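Hi team, as promised in this morning's meeting, here are the two structures we talked about. I've kept the exact order from the run log so nobody has to guess. The first one is mostly here for context; it's the second one we should focus on when we meet again. Sequence first, then the predicted structure tokens.
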Amino acid sequence: MIERRNSRTSLVFMKKILCITFFLLISLGAIQTVSAAYDTDITWTHLSSKTGDIPPPGSSIQQTASLILDIDKDGINDFIIGSRKGGSSLFWYKKSPSGWTRYLIESDTLSVEAGGAFNDIDGDGDLDVVFGGDWQSNKVWWWENPYPQYDPDKSWVRREIKNSGANQHHDEIFGDFDGDGKNELVFWNQKANKLFLADIPADPKSTQPWPYTEIWSSDISAEGIGKSDIDKDGKVDLIAGGRWFKHTGGTDYTAYVIDDSQRTSRIAAGDLIVGGNPEIVMVPGDASGRLKWYECTGDPADPKCWVGHDLLGFDVDHGHSLDVVDINNDGKLDIFAAEMNLNGGNPKAKNWVFFGNGDGNFETKLISEGIGNHESKVADLDGDLDVDILGKPYNWDTPRIDIWLNSPINHSLEPWDRQLIDAQKPWRALFITSADMDNDGHKDIITGGWWYKNPGIQGGNWIRNTIGQPLNNMATVYDFDNDGDMDVLGTQGKGSDPNAIFVWGRNDGSGKFTILNNIEPGDGDFLQGVAVGRFQGNSKLEIVLSWHEDGKGIQMLTLPPDPSNDIWSLSRISTTSQDEALSAGDIDRDGDIDLLLGTKWLNNNGGSWEPYTLNPSSGSPDRNKLADINGDGRLDAIVGFEAASIPGKLAWYEQGDKATSIWQENIVANVIGPMSLDVTDIDNDGDQDIIAGEHSIINPSGAKLLIFENSDGNGKIWNKYVIYTGDEHHDGAQTVDIDNDGDLDVISIGWTHEKVILYENKAIKNTQIKTPGKPVLSDDFNSQTLNTSLWTIIDPKSDSRFGISGYGTPDALLSITVPAGTSHDVWNGNFAPRIMQSVNNTDFEIEIKFQSQLNSQYQTQGLIVEQDSQNYLRFDIFKDEINTRIFAASFTGGSPTVRYNAVISPVNPLYLRVKRAGNEWMQSYSYDGTIWTNAASFDHTLTVTSAGPFVGNQGNQENSSPAFTGLIDYFFNTLSPIAPEDSNTYVEPPVITIQPVNQNVKEGRNATFSVVATGASPLSYQWQKNGIDIPGATDAMFTTSATTISDNGSNYRVNVINPAGSVLSDPATLTVYFRPNIITNPGFEEGTTSWNFYTRGIGSFGVIQPGLEGNNSAQLALASEDSNIQLYQKGITLEPNTSYQLSFAAFSTRGNNVTVRLIQHVSPYNNYGLDFTPNLSKSWQTFTTEFNTTGFTDIVNDGRLMFWFTPFATSGDTYYIDEIKLEKING
């Protein structure tokens, strides 16, 4: 690999300086610091269509263009290859698990020129593409993205932007160059020597060609195009033809020369030197010349300000590939450049990366030599969050594509451990937070209608505790009655069900709540923002509320002096609301608490609230936080915008000298649905970082939990890290030090699943993973039966016996017996019978006392510490042909490594200890439990999940395996042994006082079973369905998931357990009854069958995958507004004066509403009792309403169920509908 250093100093002078410096550094012993500013250790994996890694791009031998963009909105970049002279002109490539799949965009052979651009031209939420014609064509075209209907062999719809005038259009770009909040298209017209600008028409699909305006002309042909805010005035400037262009009003632009000799160069720009004006990089694309970067430290309008620096010191041969991007993820911009091999004239064509250190110095790395590049691009091509290279030649060895994949970077800021706290909570929760609910010193998790008890450093399961009916949706947690413990405020609605009735749970200090309803009801559907504070100085405590439903303003609850007995009053403090998150803080630094709504804020004027817009940015703000991002002492606003399943803006807004002025927008990243947000110093470096969770309904398995590290402490450079991929997030991603180990962990929830998840930060590592505690639970086996709430029995060959003996005596023992004649070995797999308990991945020390004598060869007893079935540790005592031995081995991917093997005395009893400290493992043994001898000591990385004792036998032949009964007196955590061990004090076993009762529910509803039991603590519970344990069902109360007819007749019972034993409840029977759905094809699984769509405007009705449930849902794309737009089903049979229930799921891309009516299908169109207008949002919600039929006296069969979109729908809106149910209510 060729390396070269570059800087602003001339190469000759720099060589002299380096020679002198090198000598001095050698003399001073400081040579190690020379290259400390660069991080260039990247491995590139080269793939090519010539070796079958990528499908070739058609048959053309002149490949002219390429683009990288996310075409199908799956969060992973796709790319386009354009060509002329034979074959189809445009193909796009989608990443697949095995490589890339090729799709057609344009089947005709067009004279496509170099360049191209993309933008959401038609405003439908996906990216469309633009390419121009070459010297043979006077046209510029755009292609409409057909998302989500892609056919590998079907062309996209092509329309014309320009179809007259001069030929050749080399380079196009989109950008908001006039600052009006809308992107314009700028393109070159080389044969006219002009640069044109076009506004996107209001209706681009029916406007051909577009109006466009000349903004600059030249006496010679020019090319190259880019953009950046050159003069730092907050408006994006255009860069083209060796110049930059400043907008001066209307369609007027003033050109300022950077380097007139670079009129036909490729152009890229960015902060190569951190701070100040952006730097510009140029290189001749269709000729040979120098690759230079230009800096300006004064007035960029003055051509003399621009100073060029030669990066290589020699000519680049047709450098038609150029970009500026952070390739090595160090927060500093790098330069990518590559040469053509035009007509075979440059057989040693090169491809470089120039790694920058942020100070204007670069280290050169040669990526390839001998491969031609033309319009090659750089971006993340495989979704692993590092920058890859897309290589494309022009006419060398064509057709051909090359890709260089960047070696994966460790994208975790620190190691993280995902823990599933609850796999299936009973219903959707809207918020998640943490607090110590039972005053045991550990922060618990609160969400929905429950709080989850933190098991602490001793490990164990998180127990779900019900706060108390009817508090179903926690809104906030606070010590409302000022008694020293945390109370809960919530609403009575479940999930997103509309409900504005408040209750609060008064905590008795142990996590038991009295539910009180002395609160005035709110006015809204379901909460999206809550803030608690004393907004009027030291006066009463107040709670500010923001509802999902628009038009409800900001409301406030005021606590009375006696919050338990007096009424909490409600008032509306402002009609201005953005209907999402709320953050409280002293924004204007006047001593009182203000409110952030998103891109607006409310100024607290001591009783009145004055609204201000901090930035008129487009989009709908969803989550927000207040924090000082740049360390200037002022609160800034961090906002994640609403964007379900599509990239959305994550930005921070910098407060200036005056809080009421416009705040500068700083884009952090575009993230799939950044609708979970927190801001904190996650890496303990003194500045504020951002945590964001992705809300991806369409692809939840690809949703990421992300950290954006504030790399420079000023919010200008952000490094992105992935905590975890595979969980969808909604109003989650909240930070808390859940394990009291000094670093911040993350807790989260989602919209499409019912999980509660903890992501534990493993930042404290090396000698200790955590502060030593009690992650292992001790057991002296002094019980009537094995405690199966603690232990899991594992019997790999299903032939071993497990027993407890000596209950209530000093000789209580666990016995594990293996039969003779078959091996129960721990070597080529783990076939030893054992009992295992879940163990936190923390430091610990385990002690086991064995009371069994090893008499025969191959008998063994010991401890297994496990990550999974292929990765574990074995510590044991075994008998060989002559001696008793102490032994240790590690297993990685199933492959063993012996760690220790030594002879010890064959005595009984024997004591074994295993200690873990970080990645260090220590084994010792004792003959009396007092004097210990060290054995194994080694380093090994293992993510521990469980540990427990085992017994086995082994042999080279099956018949050499002797029978053996291992006797285990105790299994102790040395920090918490049971004392006195084997106490004969009688422990009362559990007794059930109230048995579970039978339940009758309608299909689709939940059923709840409960039990009441007494007995010695701790009591634990395990519910069963038809005799099989239900995972996670470990409370005294169990609520099923939504029932189906297949659940009818199922029996539910519960095993109640304590240290003295267990008792099984009587079975309770679940009866599920069915109400037939009157609607035909309710989930659109049969396409559009039975449904009719009508509009006098322009619109389409079809189905799309996936649906909310099943495969399909209805999609209605409305291209124009109209006074009659409806989707309906006719011929519905109804009974008079009868109760019915309607439910359906829906959303629209703009959050617009719809009205549902049930009417007579024919004139006079009488209403049959249903007229329902729910509040739709931009993501799936399920709506339910009940009504009585009216307007007829006999059974009718002419009902029409109609979704009526007028007057809500707007041009460009798309509605999605699924799971329509119309049911008669029985009884």
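And here is the second protein, the one for discussion:
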Amino acid sequence: MGSPPHTFPATERYEYVRTLGQGGMGMVFEVLDREYGHHVALKTVLAHSSASAELLAREFRARRVTHPNLIRPLDLFIEGDQMFFTMELLEAADLARWTWSGDPVDVLSTLGMGETIPDPRQAKAGAGASQAAAGQWRGTALSSERIRGLADICCDLVSALDALHQAGLVHRDVKPSNILVTAQGRPVLADFGLAASYRRLPGQPAPMANVAGTPGYIAPELFAGVLGPPGDFYALGATLVHAMTGAPPPTDVDLQAWLAPRCPVAALVELIVELLDPNPAGRPDAEASFARLAAIAGDPHRRFRRASGQFSHGRGASMEEPFVGRADELGVLDGAARDAAAGSGAAVVEVRGPSGIGKTALVNAWLEGLADRDGRRLLVLRGDCHLHERMAFGGFDNAISDLRDHLVDEDELRLRHEGGLASVGELFVQLRALGWADELEEGGEAPLDDKARRIAAFTALGAVLAEVAAQRRLIVWIDDVQWLDGDSDSLLEQLLGPGVVPGALFVLTSRGEASGEAEPAWRASAAPRRVIELGPFSERETAALAARHGVELDEVHRLTGGLPVFVRMLARGGEVAGELGVPAAQADPLSALIRRSIAELDGPSQRLLDVLVIGTGPMARRVATGAAQTPSAGVALRALEDLGLIRYAQADASERLAVFHDRIRAARLEQLGVDARRELHGRLADSYADASPHAVELLAHHSRHAGRREAALGYTLAAAERAEGALAFATAGDYWAQALELGDAAAHDERAGWAEKLGDARVNEGRSEAAAQAYERAAALILEGLGEAPAEDSEAAQALARLRSQATREYLHCGRVRDGHRLLDELLSDHGLGLPTALSRAMARTLWTRTRLMLRGAPLATESAQLSPRARARLDILWAGSTGLAHLNFALADFLLVRHVDAALACGASHDAFRGLCVEATAEATIGGPLFGPRADRLLAAAGDWLERAQASDYERGWYAVSKATREYFRCDWPRLVEHAERADAHFERHRVLRGSGVSWERSVNDLYWLSALALMGEVEALGERHEQAYAEARERGDALAMHNCRSGHPSLLWLYRGQPEQARRELALALEPQRWCSAEALGQPWPEGVFSTPDLHNLLAQSQLALYEGGRAREAYVKLHEAWPHVGRAMLLSMRFLGLELRYLAARVKLAAAAELRREGPPTGIPDWPKGLEARALERAARADLRKLARSREPCALPFARSVEAALPGTKAARRSVSLADAVEGFGALRMGKHADAARWWRGERVPSMDERLARALVPEPASG
């Protein structure tokens, strides 16, 4: 082994063996691939430039067409000065040499532009070969036997050329030195340096063709710029001449006469003459050439079949798939594209159907048609999912690579997103090639809050895609979405959000199989969605597709079930009816065919197939061959390819193997027993450990199924840590759950730690119920390990309190209120506290504690006292309970709040007391009046004074601002509320960046009041912007209550302001536990169950507003209001400032609208719960009673509410109505409730541009007529 020349690339992976040859543009070396342990050929360019890189990449990609007679590419490297690719190394002779001698020699490949490598061992070839190579013919013609062998070889070459042509490529340099024949007689077409696309690709202009090739083999039409398959068949004719005579055909002779003495087979002479016809239309095509060559080879019945290629063509060049039918489905795809173009966000089309039904062919055919019809440039980002594969954002992995490749070459794209691109580069390593993570490396500080980093990355990626979609028609296609991982699901849901990627169409192909798990989050998005249920072909369509594939079977539809993939498999296998060997009554002939094909495999091929069958998806070739434990991997691979049992999947420029279809996998798995499967999993675990030791996810999977529990546990823990670090919360949670299952013999404290991490992952994922169960399990494991209750102030006691508090919070967030109350009661009892057994007792004890606080005062020390662990836990429990229940059970939350403030003041915990006093101030502000109203102001003033004395943190300043915003809500001062909310958000953001997580719940409370104020003010643009951000953050952290707050209540006015009642209805359908209080058992449930909560209030508001907006549904709204009213009173909501008045205003509006409907249409027939005998006059009397209560109030909102109702009451005189509406306009205006004021103006007869009758009806009752 000599020293490598200076042109050999510096690489640790490849070890130089020898130089195979050099041309004008590059060199070819034999190298040892240390990673795979075998010898390969390495080709590099001599001149390093962008043009060289482009040529090298083009040649490599052209080689990715899969066919047994095309040389196989391996890896491409274009990084800086490293520009090379590798390919299989063959022991073979070129065609001319093989024709005369049949002796294989090392591969010597043309390096490009017609320059050939001289053969250093030419003397070793026979005399005939030397004469042929030298272009000399001494009158010795090939024997008929040799000609038959040459024709047989050329049949395979025609098939290989046809595969290239079906992929839209032409070779442009077919000649003997580029055709290699192995010792086994397998011809291989090599050197794709001049290969070019001759067919217009979807969305792209037709490429310009340059004249290229080797003189003597270039078809005449190429000089005129006409590029196409006939040019390669011209070169094939010249190649046949060269193989027989030693030189390409002369141009100045009668070719037929000249060939006659040189070729004794007249049929071959005739074929060559036709292949060399100057008119491309006169040359035989692939099928005709194949048939004539097969006859010359002595096998006239040999069938020409186009190789059907890969089931899912994936990421390389692909062979053209025949496509028939599906007109209706193509129309649905067109409609989805129109949805995307017309909408303010992305649109979705889901193509469902079983494996092999033709989903991929349908989408491919539609994309080609779309590019032909559409003037906009098309960009398709393709992702795919795999069963059992656990990879962070695995569903988007390939799509992100596509995006990277697009952005690298996109000149007109100018991205400007401050601070966002670094986070995208941090999450998706493929994009780091664009320099998107540089700002972090240059000294910027990454936020410590993992969830916030992920939200930022999602948001920035959406902005990038939106900019791409503004310039191109963007299609994001994700295949096999039924296996979409949880993290990709979260990303997809984000990208489908309103206004995130306007104009983009997401095409999601899936098998439509029920997984038994919860509905994916992306389906809850409001994006326009169409669904295509793809069924089998009809008998006629199946026959048409079979004919296109060359399959001639009378019962092809019955045999294939109308599934296109099985038609293709029959064609690939060359099976005809008489060859199947399957009885006509056979229930599953294809499985029988598959099993028979597998049984006929040799040992190495069968072992390799079994490895791929047991794998989780596409597998690196080295891993597969290592697990198969066979040295003849190349032969095994070719056998599996020829039978159509495997496919090649390209991912990240590395070749991966996969089973061609799940039907093959299923048929083989039926034959593999439990012991055989366990052995295969063990072999794969060993192979991954040797070849890819960092693939801990796959090592965990195969070790577990091999029964190696200890090894599986170690890999599973490593995989969980990796997923956690990648912010892949769903994947991390799955691994922590597996660790708990595998590690049942581990120490209790270890398992408790895993369970807590499982809870943390489920919280971040948005699965609150699963998180609560995980925290409870962690607490139970700690107790099991101790064997007895821990000492009060021990670390174990603190951990138990923390875990059970977290479980309580998550149960309350997900609506499992009873479980939340159960845990809270246990926690309080453990700390000498307890839940009151009745509402009256809760109110009495709250009043007593609040009175004691008022008498004692609330002095706040500047510094907090040192607390015992038990005292600390007690305060945390009371705080968690009061805040967790704040929007679920006001009375119970109030009870826990005053206990928290009392305890904090008693033990000198000034920071806890500060927070509690801020909330207490808001609670007293809801009561108002001459006593509690001023006291709330004094408490907030004292809290503000403490902030300055204690040099408080951003968190505490943010909490103080939230409390002031809440107070303004109940005082109806919406502009000031917005000021405080903005200030709170800024403080919380600074705290998040500096300290990490810990402000999600606080921000959701702030958003609730902020959004409500903007909605009541009618600030539509500001409301929309804030709503989008708040909803995205709530969705990302999985806060069901916060998402509900965005979907209902005052914020739901956003869609009515925009004239989108359908959107309001969709969002309301997703709201948290709608109408829980309407159950028949609600009032009879023991307290604190069955309480009318804030979500119930928000649902009532949103439902009533929507019903009034749409018209004709007021009677339906009244029934819901009538059912809810006892619960409203029981929850003491009518006694709260603003809320009580707003509820009475809502009740009066609904009653008056329902009365008007009764007068017009009579009693409803479709509402079974309508109160028997209820008449319009009774509803109007009830509305008048509401008016009297509104009129007695001195709150700022009472006047416009009362005047609006007065104007709508029948019997109110016209003059009085006019005055009342004028007062309402003035009152709403004073409160800055602009849309309400506009509605009152509308009813006065003014034409307000931003108002219409539907919106006016939803905000202000329609005035009575007469």
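Starting points for discussion:
The two ends are 108 Å apart (CA to CA).
The mean pLDDT is 81.
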